[in-house]
Amino acid sequence: MSLATPLRRATAAGPVVALILLVSLNLRPGATTVGPLLPEIRAAVGLNGFTAGLLTALPPLCFAAFGPLAPRLARRFGAAGALGVGMLLLGVGLAVRALAAEPVVFLLFSMLALGGIAIANVLMPSVVKREFPEKAGLVTGVYTAFLTIGAAVGAALAVPVAQSLGSWRSGLAVWGTLALLALLVAVRCRGLTAKTDGGARTLPPLRGSRTAWALAVFFMVNATAAYSTMGWLPQIYRDAGFSPNTAGLLLALCIAIGIPLAFVMPVLAVRRPNQRALVAVLLGTGFVAYAGLAFWPADLPWLWALLAGVSQSAFPLSLALIGLRARTNEGVTLLSSFAQSTGYLCAVPGPIIMGVFYQWTGEWVVPLLFLMVLLVPALIGGLRAASPHVLEDEL
Predict the structure, then answer these.
(1) Distance, CA of 113 to CA of 360 (rounded, Å)
(2) For the chain, what are the domain ranges?
(3) Beta-carbon contacts of residue 88 (< 8 Å; ≥ 6 apart)
(4) Are 291 and 162 in contact (CB under 8 A)?
(5) Secondary structure percentages of the chain, helix, strand, coil, to 5
């Protein structure tokens, strides 16, 4: 092999790496910037307890609704082209919802933005496995770390950015510029990935796979916990006596602890014959975190935020499991679509239920007990998903 060959590969891989990292940074600020500003949004747009709960439930709802479109878009436009479509939807949704004066308009364009994120969510594991087959664990760790950085930065800067720009509307709209940058890189990369995508589907429906259903259950509980936390954790801390800015920083702390774990977790997963111990430890950490938030939120606020963040590193673990439980690129894409879409669909009621429980009781004990109960099916599904089965063999 000549020296020029690895040089050409590195040159070709550079834009793809940039695309992966930029898309990763866009996958959470559209959701995490809402929680710290939720009281201001509710007052300006007219959200009641139910519609505010629906707003926090929109991410899993949109991930379920738009996720199945991702494999079709990838077959039609290539992976980079499909990611570009997702970033376009995200940018338009973020810009227009910031202008909304009515609850329906705000919710609809939030759905559009989150639909763009859903498309990217599904495609990222297959892009990583195809473009970097020998370093899938490392690249998965890097992209989930960047995903978590984007979530943490969004939560930490939501209030300061809104204050510096003069309104919550500008504070939400400004994040659309990041989606525009990712869109430009996706256009640049389209020719690099289009030839490796496409073709007719060869695998049967995944409904007969126990591994696919186990991953869907694991995703369901992870999504319920993650989006309930992103949507309601600032309110929990504000009700415990903390300022809006401090509540946003505690949410950022919860998310930020996941940055190193997001990098490490997929690497640990691919080096183990099974990942059951990782599943058990992360879910046990979540149980302690929710108990602390329910009964002693003001005593050790930083500890509960840290533990909740550790527990939510089950998300990068589940992304790694997608790559480990399928052998082919098509299998990874379809498993990602099924597990995320089905899991997120089942997660839709969770944040709404928390909002309704909070409105009925006026406190957070019952909503957080609800999250603790959900850890039981998460453990059952997670242990199955962490066992060494392969999707193509099951089908």
Answers:
(1) 30
(2) 8-394
(3) 116, 179, 183
(4) no
(5) 85, 0, 15
How many angstroms separate the Cα of 196 from the Cα of each of 192, 323, 326? 8, 18, 18
pLDDT digits (tens, 9 = 90+) for 280-338: 999 999 999 999 999 999 999 999 999 999 998 898 898 889 888 888 877 888 888 88
Q: What span, in angstroms and rounded, lies between the C-alpha atoms of 98 and 376?
A: 38
Could you tell me the end-to-end alpha-carbon distance of the chain, in angstroms, rounded to an integer?
39
Helix 210-239 to helix 349-361 angle (10° resolution) is: 30
The span from the CA of 317 to the CA of 144, in Å, is: 10
Give 21 or 46, the one with higher predicted confidence: 21
CA angle 122, 125, 127 (to 5 degrees): 100
Radius of gyration for the alpha carbons in the chain, expressed in angstroms and rounded: 20
CA 235 vs. chain centroid, Å, equals 20
- Reading phi first (left if > 0) and then psi (alpha if -120 to 50, else beta), residue 201 is in beta
Q: What digits encode the pLDDT tens for the residues 221-247?
A: 988 888 788 778 988 999 999 988 888
The pair phi, psi for residue 378, each rounded to 5°, is -65, -40
Q: CB of 114 within 8 A of CB of 65? A: no
In CATH terms, 8-394 corresponds, of 3.30.930.10, 3.90.640.10, 1.20.1250.20, 3.40.1670.10, to 1.20.1250.20
**Structure-token pair, residue 202:** 């060869």
Side-chain half-sphere exposure of 361, counting CA atoms within 13 A: 14
Whole-structure pTM value = 0.75
Angle, CA 268 vertex, CA 266 and CA 274 arms, to 5°: 100
